[in-house]
Amino acid sequence: MDDILAVLVSLAFFATIFGWVYVYYTTRHRERMALIEKGADASIFSGKNTSFFGPLSTLKLGMFLTGIALGILAGSLLTTYTGIEEGIAYISMIFLFGGLSLVLFYFYARNKEK
Asked: Residues 84-94: pLDDT tens digits?
């Protein structure tokens, strides 16, 4: 019974991801076709706000993953030297350092735009 459940959960997971990607691209295509039919300029599609992956996306991902790694390390130190539960320490530190890395990236990107 556990094998069947694992297969069903895996199928549902991949079907959900496929559904999200399909809906995203079909919606984007319809929006673009509607704008083109109305005579909008094609240069709006190459703007920096239309793409999720910009020129600084690698830096953002790197900073985020580094923040998560630092959060795991801080969670380990927190459980070793304090009486905080292991689960709470790890999760809180991962969110804290991951969030801090994204905030730092925001300030870096904002200063780079100026």
From this structure: 999 999 999 99
Phi, psi of 83 (to 5 degrees): -95, 15
Are 74 and 45 within 8 A, CB to CB? no
For the cut 60, the answer to whether the pLDDT of residue 49 exceeds it is: no
Question: pLDDT value at position 40?
Answer: 77
Question: DSSP of 28-70, one letter per residue?
Answer: HHHHHHHHHHTT--GGGGGSTTS-SS-TTHHHHHHHHHHHHHH
Q: Tokens 């959900």 correspond to what residue?
A: 16
